């Protein structure tokens, strides 16, 4: 509106802003600006799109608890992207969860076939077009209620022939590329007017092969988008990252930059009515590799959120986003169940009429559990995120990075905060004492003061065993139930871990399970507090027990066993207010909801392989938060629950003023006292590591 020069400058700033989106986050928000100190971004304030970006894309820093509480901002002369790359602990937090799987779309699916430089002869083209025409006519006759738009993109020399042969069908025809000039000395190129004169409807713009092989950049792609729109045709804008960019975690920053560059000068009305976006991960094009539906949904949700930030929600909800990358009849139905996937850009399979027909004949009414889709909300980069707990009174989420030796805190609105320790942090639980949490550290179970950083040991933990605290939750009576982890269970397979209860007020440690194990997980309670869930992860089985705060666990019964086709094992879990168990399947990329009779009725699809635990949070306790582990994960994810599903308020541990507890009592094997204890293990003869050790460090046997 104010001139090409000003608009171009503003869009350059928009591209810069888009590139500051850090991998793993969707759309970042802020209650306190992090980027306002960057002088070039002031130019955005004069742009309507810039205002939209500034309103919802301010990057939040991660505050260190022992540093100044003021926000960490990049120096004014350093680019946001380079600063964040050099300071990986400063990561953004997303604002919107997007279309997370429970929203019904009215967008008509759009299936398109990109023939590339195929077929090579005129007879082959005749045959393929004839088969497609017959299949389309039969599908219209046999399934008149099927709502799907179809198009093919043949080589330019075959456009008139294919257009003629598909006349009278529902298959439209488009060009694979055009030159942005109306005419002139551009040998080998075709002008958009030529394509329009043939009666074509669409034009592919920015395909990865045009970018990598022919040098199409954002500026030339933007000119082509503009030329296609001015000619009255509809562009299909292709974006996507390379394998190297994917591995480096740059998916979102690459896509944001490509969107900002290609859509410079495109109005909201044009976006809403004419533009289609095709996300094609370059590493999945023609390789046989396909992004999982959860990965595709994650990126598509980011793209839609980007459009919401720039063009508004109405436009965003109208734009169709295709997925492309080795789509086949066998994979299309699963991909099309994703709420933000509105069609497919098909490569090799579109050259076989039967395959393309089957792809267009989509069936999203797949049998089985209801599917939900998680999005990353805090890109904290944990090596092994674990133990999420929601402090409902203070509206804060806590979780740990166990080998990263960190505790995290987030209030859903501002910066995430972290505390660094010098030992493994196995778990975190709430305490009734204001400003304190209970931590499972290597040294034992500890009262941690969030303000001062003071640590007071409440109880030692399995002294002498090669274990550490792992998975625990507070029961309805304010006791803390905690299981252990054999630190070498993948090597020696020894079942030496115990399940303990740290008694409220007294601080006494009581063993409550009559067998030992390798890796405790899934500890949580039903709303009435009378049933506890537990698993030893390597067994891949989750059990339910009768629970009393004054006695050991009884009446063990199998609730859920991971099916053989899924990798990994059950990890952390939480029980919802309806009495159903939500358990993270680490290695399978899912969190499943298990009914009281052991049936899976909901599945949260994760865009990473290893979710580790989950809990409910938010003002209405209607959002499931999920921790994950590296290398592909490590962030905190969330998914909005369907109506009628919510969580419980997390109980807090009740303690007396902290003192070191050394006495440990068990229902199974009597009590222990360091006074007069044997110096050597009766089972293997190994000397005990210190006078207060309760277990043999070699075989794990209890000290007599």
What does this molecule look like?
This protein starts with a helix and ends in a 32-residue tail after the last strand. Helices cover 21% and strands 27% of the residues. It is built from 16 helices and 36 strands. The radius of gyration is 29 Å and the shape is elongated. The chain has 704 residues and is of the alpha/beta class. The model is unreliable at 1-103 and 658-677 (pLDDT under 50).
Please state the CA-atom Rg, rounded to the nearest Å. 29 Å
Shape: elongated
Number of E-state strands: 36
Q: Supply the number of helical segments.
A: 16
> How much helical structure, as a percent, in the residues?
10-25%
Can you give the mean pLDDT? 83
Strand content: 25-35%
**Main sheet summary:** 8 strands, parallel, barrel
| Class of secondary structure makeup | alpha/beta
Terminal-residue CA separation: 85 Å
- Low-pLDDT residue spans: 1-103, 658-677
Give the strand order, joined by hyphens, for the main sheet: 2-3-4-5-6-7-8-9
Can you tag this structure with a few keywords?
eight-stranded parallel beta barrel; elongated; six-stranded mixed beta sheet; alpha/beta; 27% strand; 704 residues; 21% helix
């Amino acid at each position: 509106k104010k001139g090409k020069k000003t608009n171009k400058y503003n869009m350059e700033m928009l591209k810069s802003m888009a590139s500051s989106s850090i991998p793993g986050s969707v759309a970042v928000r802020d209650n306190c600006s992090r980027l306002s100190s960057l002088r070039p971004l002031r130019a955005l304030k004069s742009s309507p799109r810039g205002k939209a970006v500034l309103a919802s894309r301010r990057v939040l820093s991660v505050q260190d608890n022992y540093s100044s509480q003021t926000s960490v901002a990049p120096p004014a002369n350093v680019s946001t992207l380079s600063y964040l790359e050099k300071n990986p602990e400063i990561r953004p937090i997303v604002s919107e969860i997007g279309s997370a799987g429970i929203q019904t779309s009215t967008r008509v699916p759009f299936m398109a076939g990109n023939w590339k430089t195929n077929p090579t002869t005129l007879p082959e083209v005749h045959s393929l077009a004839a088969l497609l025409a017959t299949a389309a006519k039969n599908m219209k006759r046999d399934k008149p209620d099927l709502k799907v738009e179809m198009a093919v993109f043949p080589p330019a020399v075959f456009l008139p022939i294919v257009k003629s042969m598909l006349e009278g069908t529902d298959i439209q025809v488009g060009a694979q590329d055009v030159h942005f000039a109306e005419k002139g000395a551009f040998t080998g190129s075709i002008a958009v007017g030529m394509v329009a004169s043939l009666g074509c409807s669409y034009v592919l713009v920015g395909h990865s092969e045009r970018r990598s092989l022919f040098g199409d950049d954002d500026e030339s792609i933007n000119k082509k988008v503009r030329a296609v729109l001015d000619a009255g045709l509809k562009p299909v804008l292709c974006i996507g990252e390379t394998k190297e960019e994917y591995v480096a975690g740059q998916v979102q920053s690459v896509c944001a930059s490509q969107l900002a560059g290609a859509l410079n000068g495109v109005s909201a009305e044009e976006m809403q009515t004419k533009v289609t976006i095709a996300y094609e991960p370059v590493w999945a094009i023609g390789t046989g590799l396909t992004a999982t539906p959860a990965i595709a949904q994650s990126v598509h949700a980011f793209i839609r959120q980007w459009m919401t930030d720039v063009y508004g929600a109405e436009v965003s909800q109208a734009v169709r986003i295709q997925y492309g990358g080795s789509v086949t009849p066998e994979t299309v139905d699963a991909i099309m169940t994703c709420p933000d996937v509105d069609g497919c850009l098909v490569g090799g399979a579109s050259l076989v009429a039967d395959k393309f027909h089957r792809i267009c004949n989509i069936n999203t009414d797949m049998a089985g559990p209801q599917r939900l889709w998680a999005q990353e909300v805090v890109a904290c980069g944990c090596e092994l995120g674990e133990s999420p707990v929601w402090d409902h009174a203070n509206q804060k989420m806590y979780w740990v990075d166990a080998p990263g030796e960190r505790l995290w805190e987030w209030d859903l609105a501002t910066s995430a905060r972290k505390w660094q320790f010098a030992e493994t942090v196995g778990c975190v639980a709430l305490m009734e004492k204001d400003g304190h949490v209970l931590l499972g550290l290597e040294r034992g179970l500890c009262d941690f003061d969030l303000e001062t950083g003071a640590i007071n040991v409440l109880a030692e933990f399995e002294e002498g065993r090669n274990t550490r605290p792992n998975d625990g939750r507070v029961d309805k009576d304010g006791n803390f139930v905690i299981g252990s982890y054999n630190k070498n269970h993948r090597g020696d397979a020894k079942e030496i871990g115990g399940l303990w209860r740290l008694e409220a007020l007294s601080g006494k440690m009581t063993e409550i399970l009559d067998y030992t194990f390798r890796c405790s997980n899934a500890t949580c309670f039903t709303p009435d507090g009378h049933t506890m869930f537990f698993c030893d992860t390597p067994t891949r089985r989750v059990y339910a027990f009768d629970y009393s705060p004054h006695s050991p666990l009884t009446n063990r019964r199998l609730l859920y066993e991971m099916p053989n086709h899924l990798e990994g094992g059950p990890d952390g879990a939480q029980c919802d207010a309806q009495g159903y168990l939500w358990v993270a399947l680490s290695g399978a990329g899912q969190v499943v909801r298990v009914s009281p009779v052991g049936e899976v009725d909901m599945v949260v699809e994760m865009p990473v392989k290893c979710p580790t635990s989950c809990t409910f949070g938010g003002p209405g306790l209607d959002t499931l938060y999920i921790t994950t582990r590296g290398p592909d994960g490590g962030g905190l994810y969330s998914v909005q629950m369907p109506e009628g599903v919510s969580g419980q308020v997390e109980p807090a541990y009740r303690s007396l003023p902290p003192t070191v507890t050394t006495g440990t009592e068990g229902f199974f094997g009597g009590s222990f006292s360091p006074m007069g204890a044997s110096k050597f293990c009766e089972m293997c003869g190994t000397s005990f590591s210190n006078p207060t050790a309760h277990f043999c460090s070699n075989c794990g046997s209890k000290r007599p």
